[in-house]
Amino acid sequence: MKLTAMLRAFGGMLLIACLAFSLSACEGEKGDIGPEGPAGPAGEKGDKGDKGDPGDPGEAGTAGCVQCHDVSATVKTIAVQYEASKHGAGYTFERNGTSCAPCHTHQGFVEVLQTGSPTTAATIMNPAPVNCRTCHNIHLNYDQSDYTLADVTPVTFFTGETYDMGKSNLCAKCHQPRSAALPEIDGPDFNVSNIRFGPHHGPQSSLLIGASLIKIPGSVAYSTMNTHANVPDGCLTCHMADAFGKQSGGHTMSMGYEYHDELVPNTAGCTDCHGDIDDFDVDGAVTEIEGLIAQLKAALEAKGCLRADGYAEPGTYPANTAVALWNYRYIALEDRSNGIHNPRLVKAILQNSLEAVQ
Fold it and tell me: In whole angstroms, how far apart are CA 208 and each of 13, 113, 147, 211?
């Protein structure tokens, strides 16, 4: 009994000691705080607060727009003119393959300007015709600079020559012939394998600098002078001169208009150099060149290499006949200015080509 009492007394003392130790530990330094637990559920939405004071008025949302889309008739006039142009009509923008899209579609032209490649990376799906955004930096800075031209750097033609005539450099990116195998002067017989033998459409910029024609020798010497190559901004100076409604000039880029059922030349771009003239036949140059074109056409048809519809007749011909055929199709059917773009060169080319065929 005494032993049991002693054990009970010892246990009580041990319990008191443990409690004393625990109390002492609790009164010591606190431990580190553990990581925060997950957030509890969101409470109910509180009442809406009072409305604050209004801030200072901001700039009108249309302030940037009116810099270009003002109330003047300029934008409307340009739009109407361009819609009437051959570029704006968009007759051929379905030609969206990699080699055609750069000039026939908006997307293709923009792509090759950025990449420098002569072709697009792929066929252009859902192509758009050439439009304002093709040639201008529309909605780039949202001010008047949006009307600047997309690119006016000098152009290296597919055939290697360099064209640098100001703003018309943009035109020259497309208005040049594609590279092609050309016959050699006095060379071996040449095989014309396709009815489209000749430069691809639109070699006007090339003719301005005298490129891609074959200068076959003959009775007329070749002059390097072409006053039209010194016209500021080249194509734009004449083709975008004062407009006649939506028929010519301005963004129609056409050089003539109909008035009382007659086709009237728009000479507005010619007056600075030629004075007040009624047509483009200055000093009879156009009449002379039209006569040479007709003579060369007849000579080529007689040789059997030119069809009545103006296409080439496939076959093998003497080299100089093939040279003359190339020159004829270039001047008469592709450039179509009747020599105006480079009168002295065109006259020499036609006369010497005619002599080569005869």
Answer: 119, 22, 26, 8
* Distance, CA of 132 to CA of 139 (rounded, Å): 11
Would you list the domain boundaries of the chain? Answer: 71-147, 175-357
Distance, CA of 165 to CA of 233 (rounded, Å) = 5
The answer to whether 293 and 338 have CB atoms below 8 angstroms apart is yes
pLDDT class of 7 with cuts at 50, 70, 90: very low
Which tens digit of pLDDT belongs to each residue from 266-296?
Answer: 999 999 999 999 999 999 999 999 999 999 9
- Short-list 171, 169, 193, CA closest to 181: 193
| Helix ranges (DSSP H) in the chain | 2-26, 74-84, 86-89, 101-104, 106-115, 132-135, 169-172, 204-208, 235-239, 271-274, 285-303, 319-328, 343-357
CB atoms < 10 A from the CB of 189, how many? 12
Q: Which residue has the tokens 């252009």?
A: 124
Rounded alpha-carbon distances, angstroms, from residue 249 to 28, 165, 174, 284: 97, 19, 20, 23
pTM tops 0.85: no
